[in-house]
Amino acid sequence: MSLLMSQPKTEIASNVVATAAFDPPIVQPGERAVYRVTFNALEGSIGWPQKVAAPAELALRAGGHGQVLLFNGTNFVPRTTFNCHARAPRLGHFTVPEFTVDVYGKTVNVPAAQLNVLGARPASMTPAQQLLFEVPETNLYVGQAVKVRVLLASTPTGQLQTLMQVQVNGDGVLVDQGTARQWVGPVRRGGSALAAYIYETVLTPLRTGKLSAFAQGFSAGNRLSAPIVLSGPVVFPAGLQYTLLDSEPVELQVRPLPRQGELPGFTGAIGSFSLDPPKLAANALRVGETLKLLVTVRGDGNLARLAAPPPPQASDWQVFAAAAEASPPPPFVALAPPPAAPPASATFTYTLVPLTAAARATPAIPFSYFDPKRAAYVDLTIPPLPVTVQPGAAGGDWQALQQPDRGPAASEKEPGLSELAAAPGLTAASLAPVQRRPWFPFLQLAPAAAVAALWGWDRRRRFLEQHPAVVLRRRARRALRRQWRALRRAARAGDAPRFAGAAVAALRVACAPHYPADPRALVGADVLPLLSRAEASAGDLRAVEVVRRFFAVTDAARFGPAPTEAVELLALQPELEEVLDQLEKRLWA
Amino acid sequence: MGNWKSIFQVFLPALVLIFLAAPGLAASADALFQEGLAAYRAGDYARAARAFSEAAGRQPASGTLQNLGNAQWQRGQTGPAILAWEQALWLDPFNRSAHNNLRFARKLAQLEPPDLSWYEVVSTWLPVNWWAWIAGASLWLAVGMVLLPGLLRRRKAAWHQAVAAFGLMVFLLSLPAHLGVHTRARIGFVLQPDTPLRLTPTREAQALTRLSAGEPARWERTRGRYLLLRTSQARGWLEQDLFRLICPP
Question: What value of ipTM does the predicted structure carry?
Answer without folding.
Answer: 0.83
